[in-house]
Structure formats: structure tokens, C-alpha cells
Write a structure and sequence with these properties.
This is Pectate lyase. This protein is α/β, with parallel strands linked by helices and 490 residues long. The chain contains eight helices and 32 strands. It folds into two domains: 54 residues, no CATH class; 395 residues, Single-stranded right-handed beta-helix, Pectin lyase-like (Pectate Lyase C-like, 3 Solenoid). β10 and β11 form a beta hairpin. α1 runs antiparallel to α8. The longest helix is centred in the N-terminal third of the chain and has 26 residues. The protein starts with a helix and ends with a helix.
Length: 490
């Protein structure tokens, strides 16, 4: 009988276990302790690159789209005419929270020569799947143009760079790219699209480990409990779930110079409102073009610190930036072009949250350009105070050349779909005069997302009612058995 009681007490502890773990895991071990310092460093690098560009144009009396664009990432490596002989120089060019992502730096080059993906358990040497599961650092390049249709998720191991420069590389199919429990990955110059849910199968994740995967969600890139990730110059569209999702305590991420199009829920940052470790999530979103056919989530944030800087938002149908659970959103030097719909002019949306709660959230706008009636609703003392901050050497001065900064967003040399883009011209800038507007209620349902783990399938969210019912059941059973034991002892 005593053993039965012990088992029941253990079950009771398990009931509380998720809440206990969350309550003691409020921060992540790899998050930056001073995120505003990272923001200021990004601003400094942008301003330095702009100054060099202005000097270049003055002395050379010409504007080049290949070098000295004012974009600090591109100027870092594209000014070297022999960059292809020193590809790993790219690893020194990241900015923001993902700047420590070294990928396969100092590792061997691996040339993908086979575009097939026939076996997820025993990948064929020469394929991309074979390369990304290896343990050692690898700088992965491609022998030529490739169309890679994945059989299932592509599970990437730590310290890998997928470098598509010099080739037209398309990744599509089932599952697409998954980064789970790993670190230091760079994905550069890749087309990723038409990603579909798949799974319930065995997939090799390292040379020595094969795991059973549940059903994936169909993300373009799924980042799960991972850190030091840099996604640069990619083109993403038409996926089943998110184009890029980062959840479950992922941090140290930069998403830059990419082109997003033709998708509903573009980018999710944060697993669940109640998952407190995501408070340590830190993400830089810089120099991207949010283009044709987008609806919402550019990004949609839960907790964390999100720096959105020098992006061009040319289309949304519901909202551009949304959030819940008190994320910090620092928007600087972006251009927001509102749609024609008079009910969708607001850039921001606080998801399923009353104004009495979100009014204290730190959402800032500084130097943003608002076009066609777009408006950003700031909040919190810092968010409101930043509208009236005095100019300084680290404030964004780059909104005026947003076209130049995002000129090459996406895969180099690839055409953008501009069939329904609209140019309104003009605009207003947030800063000294600020911006205003009514409460952020938005429209439509912004449903939750649940990540997939190794195992039989996706974890299910337990409602508070169900949770307390289970807990009460355990307590009743414990009481009955304890009472019975007491009678026996008497």
C-alpha cells in the first residue's frame, strides 16, 4: 500500500512538473544581458556603412549596387572581388543577436553534388541531407544549380553553413529545414518554398542517431530550442505553416536580407504565452523585404526582445507586427506601407489582450517611415519616451535610403514577384513628432502554434480546466488511498 501512495505522490509531482520547471527557468543561459547594447552596435555598423557609401559616391562620382551599398552585411564580403575564394569570410559579417553564429567556419568545404533525397535514415553521400547531419563543422556549397525536393524534414546538425552563393538552389517538399537543439548554423542564398507537413517516420539527425519524428507543421525553417542562428539572403514563400518559426527558448537569431512573399502567417517568435523561457529569446530582423501576398506575423512575438530594423514592409492584409505576453519590440528605421483597406492601416496588433494590460508593454518606434496612412501604436514608458528622444550618433539615420539597404533582399540575382505591388510614395517618419492611433484590437484569429518534438507526434496543449481536473482527480485518489491505509493501520 505504501508503494501505491508513493506512485500517486509521484503522479502528483508530475502534474506540477511543467509549471515548476518554467518558474525556475526565467532566462536562457545564452541570452545577451544587455540587449540594447546589441541594438546600438547594429545602428553603429549601419551608420558606418552609410558614411562609407556617401564617401564612395563623392570620390568615385558613381553609385554601385555591388559594393558600398550602406548595408553592413553585404559590404562586409561583397567588396572583395575574390569572395568565392574566401567564402568563410561571410561568417564574420553577421550583425545583431545572431552575430555569433559561425556556422561551419574553419571547417572543411563539402560540395553537394547530388540533388536527390531518397533515404532519410541512410542518406546518400554527396546529398545535402548527408552533409547537414555530420558532427564536424562543414561549409556546405553546391556543385551547380539544384532543385532539392525533400522526402521528409531536413534535420540540421550544429556548426553548419548552407551556402548557396554561385548557384540557384531550391529547397522544397516535405518538412523543409529543422534546427532543433543545435547551435551555430548559417543558411544563406537559398530559395525555400512549398513546404508541406510530413513525418511519422524515422530520420537520421547525426551519423550515430536515428529518431522517430512525429508529424511536422510544414514550416520553411523551424528553429526549436536552438541558438546562434543566422538566416541571410533567402527567399521564402508558400509554406503550410510559418515561413520561419522560432520557439521553445531559441535565442541569438538574426534574420536578414531575405524576401518574404505569398504567405499568411509569416514568422512566429515564441512557443506559447505561458512558456516563460521565451522571455530570453532575442532576435534581430534587418534589411528584409516583406513583399507580395503577405497577411500577418512579420513577426508575431511572444515574450523576448525583438529588434526590427531597416526593413521594407510593402504589403500586409491584417497587420505587420503582432504580439502577446509582453514582448519588447524595438522598431527602427523601417518603411511601413499600409494597404488600401482602411481597417488595416495599423502596423501593430496586441493579440487577444486588453489595452489595460498592453499599455505597459515596451513597444518602440524610432525613425520609421509611415506610408499611405500606416501608423504604429507604441506603448510603455520606454516605448512612448523614445518618440521624443534627442538625436544621437547611434540613432537610425537610414530610413531615407531603405531602397538601397534592401535592394538585394532575397536570393542574389533572382527576380521578385512585383505583379501586384503598389507604390504610394511620400510618407511620414516617426521620431520627434511620433505617431498615434487608437487601441490595437485587430481582426481575425491569430491561433496558437505548438512545436514538434522527437517522439510519436506533436505535444498537445492542456487547457487550464483539463489540467485542474487531472490535478483534482489525483488529489481525490490520494485521499481515498490514504484514508484506506489509515483504517488498515487502526
Amino acid at each position: 500500500m505504501f508503494s501505491v501512495i508513493c506512485i500517486l505522490l509521484f503522479c502528483l509531482l508530475i502534474s506540477f512538473f511543467p509549471q515548476i520547471i518554467v518558474s525556475f527557468n526565467l532566462t536562457l543561459p545564452h541570452q545577451h544581458p544587455y540587449p540594447d547594447a546589441v541594438v546600438q552596435e547594429v545602428q553603429r555598423k549601419v551608420n558606418e556603412s552609410i558614411s562609407r557609401r556617401q564617401l564612395w559616391n563623392t570620390t568615385m562620382n558613381a553609385i554601385t549596387t555591388q559594393c558600398e551599398t550602406g548595408n553592413p552585411i553585404d559590404d562586409c564580403w561583397r567588396c572583395d572581388p575574390n569572395w568565392s575564394k574566401n567564402r568563410q569570410r561571410l561568417a564574420d559579417c553577421a550583425i545583431g543577436f545572431g552575430q555569433n553564429a559561425i556556422g561551419g567556419k574553419n571547417g572543411k568545404y563539402y560540395v553537394v553534388s547530388d540533388s536527390s533525397d531518397l533515404d532519410t535514415v541512410n542518406p546518400t553521400p554527396g546529398t545535402l541531407r548527408y552533409a547537414v547531419i555530420q558532427e564536424e563543422p562543414l561549409w556546405i556549397i553546391f556543385s551547380g544549380d539544384m532543385f532539392i525536393k525533400l522526402k521528409h524534414e531536413l534535420i540540421v546538425n550544429s556548426y553548419k553553413t548552407i551556402d548557396g552563393r554561385g548557384a540557384k538552389v531550391h529547397i522544397t517538399g516535405n518538412g523543409c529545414i529543422t534546427l532543433q537543439y543545435i547551435s551555430n548554423v548559417i543558411i544563406h542564398n537559398i530559395h525555400i518554398y512549398n513546404c508541406l507537413p510530413s513525418g511519422n517516420t524515422d530520420i537520421r539527425s547525426t551519423p550515430t542517431h536515428v529518431g522517430h519524428r512525429g508529424r511536422s507543421d510544414g514550416d520553411g525553417i523551424s528553429i526549436f530550442a536552438s541558438r546562434n542562428i543566422w538566416i541571410d539572403h533567402c527567399a521564402l514563400s508558400h509554406c503550410t505553416d510559418g515561413l520561419i518559426d522560432a520557439i521553445m527558448g531559441s535565442t541569438g537569431i538574426t534574420i536578414s536580407n531575405s524576401y518574404f512573399s505569398h504567405h499568411d502567417e509569416v514568422m512566429l517568435l515564441g512557443h506559447d504565452d505561458k512558456y516563460l523561457p521565451d522571455a530570453g529569446m532575442q532576435v534581430t530582423i534587418a534589411f528584409n523585404h516583406f513583399g507580395v501576398g503577405l497577411v500577418q506575423r512579420m513577426p508575431r512575438c511572444r515574450r523576448g526582445y525583438i529588434h526590427v530594423v531597416n526593413n521594407d514592409f510593402t504589403e500586409w492584409q491584417m497587420y505587420a507586427i503582432g504580439g502577446s505576453a509582453n514582448p519588447t519590440i524595438n522598431s527602427q528605421g523601417n518603411r511601413y506601407t499600409a494597404p488600401l483597406d482602411a481597417n488595416a492601416k495599423e502596423v501593430t496588433k496586441r493579440v487577444e489582450t486588453d489595452e489595460g494590460e498592453w499599455s505597459g508593454w515596451n513597444w518602440r518606434t524610432n525613425g520609421d517611415v509611415m506610408v499611405n496612412g500606416a501608423f504604429f501604436v507604441p506603448s510603455g514608458e520606454e516605448g512612448l519616451g523614445n518618440q521624443y528622444a534627442k538625436a544621437s550618433s547611434v540613432e537610425p539615420k537610414s530610413a531615407a535610403i531603405i531602397d538601397q539597404l534592401t535592394l538585394n533582399a532575397g536570393v542574389f540575382g533572382a527576380p521578385r514577384d512585383k505583379s501586384i505591388s503598389i507604390s504610394y510614395g511620400g510618407g511620414t517618419t516617426t521620431g520627434a513628432s511620433g505617431s498615434g492611433g487608437g487601441g490595437s484590437t485587430g481582426a481575425g484569429d491569430d491561433s496558437d502554434f505548438f512545436g514538434m518534438m522527437f517522439g510519436s507526434g506533436a505535444p498537445q496543449k492542456i487547457s487550464s480546466t483539463t489540467y485542474y481536473t487531472i490535478l483534482l482527480s489525483h488529489l481525490i485518489i490520494l485521499f481515498l488511498y490514504t484514508n484506506q491505509l489509515f483504517l488498515i493501520l487502526l
